[in-house]
Amino acid sequence: MADEPLSQKEIEDRLRELPGWAFEDDRIIRTYRLGTHFAASALVAHIAAVQDELNHHSDLTLGYNTVRVSVNTHSAGDAVTGADFALAERVEALAPSHGAS
Ligand SMILES: C[C@H](O)[C@H](O)[C@H]1CNC2=NC(N)=NC(=O)C2=N1
């Protein structure tokens, strides 16, 4: 089920399908770069809407023209689960529409 911690091998295998994402400190993370600060803030708002829809929430860090997404699953003891990858896949799908790279 989605909220079971994934093994290290499962995490590595799934990260191969998500270029730009990495495993760090028991989380999966990616930093996106955008054209402007406002574009970065719009990406944050869009991700926040998806997170409420999924009821799964990353830590989002807004920089000048960057957005850092960092997520694990609190209810699984702060381990990485399928829910984290489901969120990462949704973020990957919407990021290009904001000009994020
Ligand atoms: C009550 C609610 O379902 C929980 O607090 C959800 C909300 N968002 C969450 N987000 C994350 N990243 N991990 C969780 O365990 C989690 N739990």
From TrEMBL:
It catalyses: (4aS,6R)-4a-hydroxy-L-erythro-5,6,7,8-tetrahydrobiopterin = (6R)-L-erythro-6,7-dihydrobiopterin + H2O. This is Putative pterin-4-alpha-carbinolamine dehydratase. It is an enzyme of class 4 (lyase). It comes from Streptomyces vinaceus. Belongs to the pterin-4-alpha-carbinolamine dehydratase family. One of its GO terms (molecular function) is 4-alpha-hydroxytetrahydrobiopterin dehydratase activity. PANTHER family: PTERIN-4-ALPHA-CARBINOLAMINE DEHYDRATASE. The keyword GTP-binding does not apply. The lineage of its organism: Bacteria, Bacillati, Actinomycetota, Actinomycetes, Kitasatosporales.
